[in-house]
Write a structure and sequence with these properties.
Elements: H1 2-18, H2 26-39, E1 42-48, E2 54-60, E3 63-65, E4 69-75, H3 79-86, E5 89-96, E6 101-112, H4 115-121, E7 139-153, E8 156-161
Antiparallel strand pairs: 1-2, 1-5, 3-4, 4-7, 5-6, 6-7, 7-8
């Protein structure tokens, strides 16, 4: 199966090269990156853990403001929140496995407990995770703020600052 995946990736890169998509402008890259974020249901959140090892967790892609801010909900009691209290540097990765697009955002996370932030992400039925509702002390909002990004698709690979 791994050779089939590799062949598929090569075909995708060749197709993009044939379309002339190897030299996109920064504006085009940002547009494609935003489209990837908007269509993604899941993204990967990377935090720094014990001994400096990275910890990666799949998270629901609930809310974003462009590429600058991404919000997540999580349990206050989680190991992730405890790690973020020690080191708030993080990364968020979006991927489309069908088109071989990837976007890495690098930045920091703020742990929010205020009611306005909690209401921002709250949705009916979330009591399954947070039984006490929107005011549950075990319900936290994480606000990721990106400082830079790296976008990859086909033969395009561009790193840029997020402003």
């Amino acid at each position: 199966m791994s050779k089939e995946v590799l062949k598929s990736a090569i075909q995708s890169a060749q197709k993009n090269k044939g379309k002339g998509n190897t030299k996109l402008t920064k504006k085009e890259v940002i547009q494609q990156a935003l489209e990837l974020v908007e269509k993604s249901k899941i993204c990967l959140l990377g935090t720094n853990g014990e001994g400096g090892f990275p910890y990666i967790k799949a998270m629901l892609n609930v809310k974003n403001e462009g590429l600058k801010n991404v919000w997540f909900s999580t349990n206050t009691s989680s190991r992730r929140v405890q790690r973020l209290k020690q080191d708030n540097r993080a990364s968020v990765y979006y991927v489309d496995e069908n088109t071989y697009q990837g976007l890495l955002l690098i930045g920091t996370i703020e742990i929010l407990q205020d009611i306005e932030s909690k209401k921002l992400l709250w949705t009916e039925g979330a009591e399954i995770y947070y039984p006490l509702g929107v005011t549950d002390p075990d319900y936290s909002v994480l606000c990721f703020t990106a400082k830079k990004a790296n976008y990859y698709h086909g033969l395009t690979n561009l790193t840029f600052k997020i402003e």
